[in-house]
């Protein structure tokens, strides 16, 4: 089941206190919960539960990592 989440709703998926860790990139929401680099919902100064479309473009890997992540929905 694909989720449609607003930016406000996405905030609850911050990877803390047992919550899933989701990030949005270009309108697509990805699950980073099981990614070791996103332990506790944080990764290189970024936190889950946000739209990181701009931030990913400054990362060395750019969007190449997205193909490995489960898509859980759309940012609306």
TrEMBL record:
Pfam hit, one: Cyt-b5
Superkingdom, natural source: Bacteria
Domain (Cytochrome b5 heme-binding) ranges: 5-76
Name of this chain's protein: Cytochrome B5
């Amino acid at each position: 089941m694909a989720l449609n989440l607003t930016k406000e709703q996405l905030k609850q998926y911050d990877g803390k206190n047992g919550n899933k860790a989701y990030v949005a990139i270009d309108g697509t929401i990805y699950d980073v919960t099981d990614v070791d680099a996103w332990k506790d919902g944080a990764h290189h100064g970024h936190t889950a539960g946000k739209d990181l479309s701009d931030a990913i473009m400054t990362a060395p890997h750019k969007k190449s990592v997205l193909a490995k992540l489960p898509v859980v929905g759309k940012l609306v």
